[in-house]
Structure formats: C-alpha cells, structure tokens
Amino acid sequence: MFFDDHQIRPCYERVFTHFSGLRSAALEEQSRKARRMFNRLGVTFTVYQESASLERTLPFDILPRIIPMDEWSLLERGVRQRVRALNLFLRDIYHEQEILHDGIVPRELVVTHPDYCWAMVGTKVPFGQYVTLAGIDIIRDPAGRYLVLEDNLRVPSGISYIFENRQMTQRLFPDMCRKYRIQPILPALSFFARYLRSLAPRQTSNPTVVLLTPGKYNSAYYDHVFLSQQLGIHLVEGKDLLTLNNRVFMRTVEGLKQIDVIYRRIDDAFLDPLAFRSDSVLGVPGLMSAYRAGHVALVNAPGAGVADDKAVYAYVPEIIRYYLNEEPILQNVPTYLLDDPEQRRYVLANLDKMVVKKTTGAGGYGMLIGPKASAAEIEDFARAIVNDPKEYIAQPTINLSQHPSLVNGRFEGRHIDLRPFVIGGERVIPGGLTRVALRKGSLVVNSSQGGGCKDTWVVQLDGQQQEAGRECRIVC
C-alpha cells in the first residue's frame, strides 16, 4: 500500500481514505459481518489433523489488494507464457521426449517421478491440452520483483474464493468499489465453461460436462459445488458414473447419458482402480481405457503432476526457452537441487537461512523455514536430506511483501502471495487469489496453516493517478 518512504501508492489513495474514516468498532463489525455471511453461504475449507478433520469458515480480510493494470499486464503475460511452455513439456515427455534426449531436463528426474503416468505414454490428449486450469503461485520480494514460487497443475483449488471474495467486498463497501475501475472477473467463468465444452472429443452441439468430486468430506468440496453451479455442469461422484464399450456414462433418472468431458478434482491415483490404485472407491473402473480410446476428455490430464514438481520447477526457465524460444517474463525463486553434492553441501551449511520443501509436497506441509525453526527441527531436516536428497529442494528465505490486514480491530502488516488462475493457457482471471499469512511473522499463507485471503483488484488508473504514480516512482 505504501512506498518505502511511507507515501501512499496512488492506486490505494481512495481505499486508504475510506478505511481511515472508519472507527475500529465499525471495522470489526464489517469483519464479523463477512464471517457470518461466509458461514451462512457455507464458504468453508477442511483442515485435516491427526485425530480428526475440521471444517472451518474461510478467513477473509476486508481490506482489498490492488494491482495496477500495468503490473497486471506483466503478470498475465508471464503466467500465460509459463503454462504454454509446461503444456508443451507434458506433451513431449509422454511422446517424443525430445527435451530429455537433448539433456535440458534430466531423464531420471522425469521418468522415475511418482507422478509420471505410464498409462499416458503415447496417449492422444484432446487438442493437446494437458493443462486446462493452472494456478501459479507468485510472490513479491523486498525489491518489488514478482517471482514464481511454484506451479499447480494437477487439481488446483481456490478458484471459487476469488468470486466469493469479490461479492463480499461489494456487499460490504459498495460505494468504495464504485470509485474504482475494477476489471470484472465473471467473464472468466463463462470462458471456462465454453472452454470445457470445446474439449469434447465427439461432434455434438451440446456436450455433457461433469465435475468429478471425491465427495463432501474433501477439503475443497465447497470449491467443487460452486464451480459446478456457476459453470452449469453436473457434480458427480465416481459411483454416479460407469463405462461401457470404452465410453463413460452418467446414471440419471432418464437412463444412461454419455459424458464428453470430466473436470476431475480427484488425484491420479484414485481415478481408475483398474489402472491405478485397486483399492480406490472414488474413481471409475475403465475410465483410463475410455480416455485412451479418445471417447472422453479429462481436465487436467493424468500425469500433469510431473510438471509442477518442485525439482522440475528449477528447470522451467530452460523449458520456456526450449519450447517457445523466449526469455522467461517471470523469474523463479533461486532453487537448490539437493542431489547435486555441491549444492547440498552449501544448503546443509546454511539450513538456518533456507526454506526446504519436499519435491512432491503441497499445502504448506512438510516444510522447514530455517529462520523460524528450532535446532532440533534443523537437525531432523539435515538428516532427511542426507538420507534422501532427491526428495527435497531448498530456496533462500525470501521476506514476502506485506499488506495491511485487519487484526483485532487494527491494521497490521501480514505477508501475502498471489495465485493467478490460467484457463487453457489463454485467459487469466483478473487479480487471482491473494492469500494472507494471518499469523504474525508467518510466511505460510495456506488456509490449512492459518492463512486467509483477500479480494484482489486489477484497476485501470485515471490520468491523474497515473501521473501521480510516475512522479512518486521518480521521487523514490
């Protein structure tokens, strides 16, 4: 919200004026109102613990994040470039494997990866679209640079919260919202619905699209319900589907109905008990045979998890250069691959300054944040790295940018990141999802780890604000 000299950024002037005019009690009441409405609407997520799973209302911070259009244009081009390259990478590793032959990405890293799906080798994917929906996690460092923290290409979640956050902000502060030219987000849902239908393998004017969910006990079930309703597609579980003659059908009161596109929110291992885990009761027996025969589309394609592995992440700049012959628009966070002896020695000598992650980890679990870790935790991670270095990567601890957040009736700085969602490598939902580490000093923004979220505005500044922004940048 502020420049280094504490001067307000031009895009925040009206928001700053609005919130500065509200008393602490009024701010708290608006925050409570948001919690009540989210609770009534059922905007929740599930936290899994050792002894139980707990359903919680999504923590919502009422002060929106604002991204000027010129900054957003850079982010939008950067994430689209990244997803296009990763989609080509996935097609290549399941077909010609040219990038592996040329030694750009180590063959062993790819073909021995637990998410490398051998059933996908040689499989023709509808329109070559392996990644229909991607969530790219972005951070901003102390120098103001946007950096990619990680890619989410399997079954990325959180898209519903973008729309619920916007509706909530408009309910709470309608007058303030009208003072800004905020890029609309609803057209992206219509685009997503059309895009899903365009993937149908058979020629039909009205293809049938379903969202396959593990069920109501899944942590992202609200996301599944929201999207099925807003996209106008059926919400189904594995038991609602069956396969006949390498085609997938849905059971309905009127009989069997052929399915053309499955937007799946089930991990690869549970999709088809005949092809993957035989004990899965969540998937559809014979689904992969129907998919390989070209009679149904799966979104995202099985095996996409290889491309969002945290070790493969280190090679994404080279992947972009290889397939697109372009320089990366957005840079990675510097990353150490711990199967390299020299890099491993350096990391082990500096673990107290590093963030260490499992290459296949997710959700903020199984991480070491060196500056905040105890000596025992550092020792445990050092031992784990020595025992199995390929399972981990390390990155320098970056002090993520902060944003004012309402905490106990007053605004305090909290660390944030940004997850733009890319549809079909083409359309990016304006703003995406800003996640907030609501615990003071925490760098972990995941909702399962005490994080919350904000409404995120992409705004077109008027001429006066743009001129003020230029003057401020010159002064700073």
UniProtKB/TrEMBL annotation:
InterPro entries: ATP-dep_Glu-Cys_Ligase-2 (IPR051680), CP_ATPgrasp_2 (IPR025841), UCP005522 (IPR016450). Coiled coil: none annotated. Pfam families: CP_ATPgrasp_2. It comes from the Bacteria. Residues 64-437 form the Circularly permuted ATP-grasp type domain. This is Circularly permuted type 2 ATP-grasp protein. It comes from Heliomicrobium undosum. The lineage of its organism: Bacteria, Bacillati, Bacillota, Clostridia, Eubacteriales.
